[in-house]
């Protein structure tokens, strides 16, 4: 496995990101060692809030929330997923799978022996974090679920998967603007456009993704999100993530693994806060699955936020998390 590591100079003087770097080594299936970066801020004896990001962001997404949460007495651990941020980046898209990412996250949590955690997960942070809860439930105390989901055979039946499998080859390779049009119009197959754009568009860029899914106008912030990816060679993980969402027929094993994680969530009855935003075209309505299937759910809506609600409404989201922890 060929592995790239973003030069440290790319992270010099990023706006609002002056956190100390910490690293933990996990192993790929072939034995390759991969260095995972993580932020670890706040009192050592504080309750841990594990903050997981998605695609194509990194722990930079939580830079505004970390001081709020640590200021309230909590310890915040925010890792960069393999392929993102300051973590190592396998160079081939074939090096990334859903199961592989889950394994890396499980290794990270076990290696640091983190316990008593509140999970804060968004986007792929949920698809991975909730699977890790299913695998290691004793490490977790409560869950904050925001703008994400946990695919399974109930929501993604074989019929739906087969339909998407037939649709995929018929979709043209889109531009970012075409993907935005699909999401804005609420087209049922919009996510297929998203997968195809990330996997096949020759002009794919992290900057364009944030243009598609956020209203960030500050170039210094966009530079921060783009910092981990000096050129096209570094973006294999970001390109592959949407293709790992287990929509297509060949992904059934991942949907079955999702069923197992759901069974643990239902049995454990963790206190759950669903905090979806009111302006995310990707996961709109996704909180309903958690509200219906999990019995101990508090639901709030984060207003005035898009897909990256940590970026758009960090104070409001942090306030809800702190109140939820105090209540439970």
Describe the structure.
The chain has 328 residues and is α/β, with parallel strands linked by helices. The chain has one domain: Alpha/Beta hydrolase fold, catalytic domain (Rossmann fold), CATH 3.40.50.1820. Helix content is 40%, strand content 16%. The chain contains 13 helices and ten strands. An eight-stranded mixed beta sheet has the order 2-3-5-4-7-8-9-10, with helices on both faces. Strands 1-6 form a two-stranded antiparallel ribbon. β2 (22-27) and β3 (33-41) form a beta hairpin. The longest helix is centred in the C-terminal third of the chain and has 17 residues, at 252-268. It is globular. It starts with a strand and ends with a helix. 47% of the residues are buried.
- The strand count comes to 10
What is the topology, as strand order, of the major beta sheet? 2-3-5-4-7-8-9-10
Classification by helices and strands: alpha/beta
So how many helices?
A: 13
CATH H-level homologous superfamily name: Alpha/Beta hydrolase fold, catalytic domain
The percent of residues in helical segments reads 25-40%
Q: For the report, how would you describe the main beta sheet?
A: 8 strands, mixed
Query: Rg, please?
Result: 18 Å
CATH topology: Rossmann fold
CATH architecture label: 3-Layer(aba) Sandwich
- Please identify the top-level CATH class: Alpha Beta
Output the helix-strand order: EEEEHEEHEHEHHHHHHHEHEHH
| Overall mean pLDDT | 96
Strand proportion, as a percent range, falls in 15-25%
Q: Tell me the distance between the termini.
A: 44 Å
Domain count, please report it.
1
Given as residue ranges, the uncertain stretches (5+ residues, pLDDT < 50) are: none
Principal-axes shape call: globular
């Amino acid at each position: 496995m060929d592995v790239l590591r973003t030069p440290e100079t790319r992270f010099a003087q990023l706006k609002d990101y002056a956190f100390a770097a910490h690293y933990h080594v996990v192993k790929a299936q072939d034995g390759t060692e991969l260095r995972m970066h993580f932020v670890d801020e706040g009192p050592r004896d504080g309750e841990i809030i594990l903050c997981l990001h998605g695609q194509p962001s990194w722990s930079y997404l939580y830079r505004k929330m970390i001081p709020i949460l640590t200021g309230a007495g909590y310890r915040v651990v925010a890792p960069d997923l393999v392929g993102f941020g300051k973590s190592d980046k396998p160079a081939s898209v074939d090096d990334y799978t859903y199961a592989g990412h889950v394994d890396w996250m499980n290794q990270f949590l076990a290696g640091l022996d983190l316990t008593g955690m509140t999970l804060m997960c968004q986007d792929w942070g949920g698809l991975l974090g909730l699977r890790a809860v299913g695998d290691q439930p004793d490490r977790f105390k409560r869950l904050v679920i925001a703008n994400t989901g946990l695919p399974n055979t109930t929501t993604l039946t074989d019929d739906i998967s087969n339909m998407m499998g037939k649709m995929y080859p018929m979709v043209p390779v889109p531009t970012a603007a075409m993907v935005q049009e699909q999401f804005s119009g609420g087209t049922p197959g919009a996510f297929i456009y998203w997968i195809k754009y990330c996997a096949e568009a020759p002009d794919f860029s992290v900057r364009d993704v944030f243009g598609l899914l956020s209203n960030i106008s500050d170039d210094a912030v966009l530079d921060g999100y783009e910092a981990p990816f000096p050129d096209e060679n570094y973006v294999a993980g970001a390109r592959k993530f949407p293709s790992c969402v287990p929509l297509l027929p060949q992904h059934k094993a991942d949907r079955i693994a999702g069923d197992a994680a759901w069974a643990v969530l239902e049995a454990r009855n963790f206190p759950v806060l669903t905090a979806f935003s009111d302006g995310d075209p990707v996961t709109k309505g996704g909180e309903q699955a958690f509200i219906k299937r999990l019995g101990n759910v508090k639901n709030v809506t984060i207003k005035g936020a898009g897909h990256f609600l940590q970026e758009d409404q960090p104070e409001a989201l942090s306030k809800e998390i702190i109140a939820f922890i105090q209540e439970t």
